[in-house]
Amino acid sequence: MHDPHAVGSIVDALRQAHGDAAARLMLQDGMTLEALIDALVRLPLSNRDSIRLMIAALESGDFDVAPDFAARPSHLKFIYDPPRSMRVVDIVMLTEHHTYSSAEIWLRLRP
Q1: What whole-number distance in Å separates Cα of residue 6 and Cα of residue 58?
Q2: What is the pLDDT of residue 42?
Q3: Is the preceding peptide bond at 82 cis, omega within 30 degrees of 0?
């Protein structure tokens, strides 16, 4: 594992938000980035810690990410609520040819 602390925090967030069985299923079979963000914003984490975990899930290499953004230029865009606040509620991935919402990005913990 590249970032065991981040993976542990993500697993804890999923377990608290969805329960043990559902969290295990989400990690093994995959989940959307939207589901992970939902679990993270429900917890009493600071906005900074939530964002750090969202980015770690995408960039640490501990999760398989689909579609694969590593092969082409991409950029993360954070969605704030309300606008101009510091509270991130969603992420969008921008590429040269397509904009992916968090509902279109899938994550699965690597074995």
Answers
A1: 11
A2: 87
A3: yes
Residue 65 β-bridge partners: 107
Q: Determine the residue type at 70.
A: A
| 74, two tokens | 């991409």
Q: What is the pLDDT of residue 68?
A: 86
Report how far residue 37's alpha carbon sits from residue 84's, in angstroms, rounded to the nearest whole number. Answer: 19
Q: What is the mean pLDDT of residues 66-77?
A: 84
Q: Helix 4-18 to helix 20-29 angle, to the nearest 10 degrees? A: 130
Q: What is the mean pLDDT of the chain?
A: 92
Average pLDDT (74-81) is 89
**pLDDT above 80: residue 29:** yes
By CB neighbour count within 10 A (0-12 exposed, 13-18 middle, 19+ buried), where does 82 fall?
exposed
Q: How far apart are CA 37 and CA 101, in angstroms?
A: 12
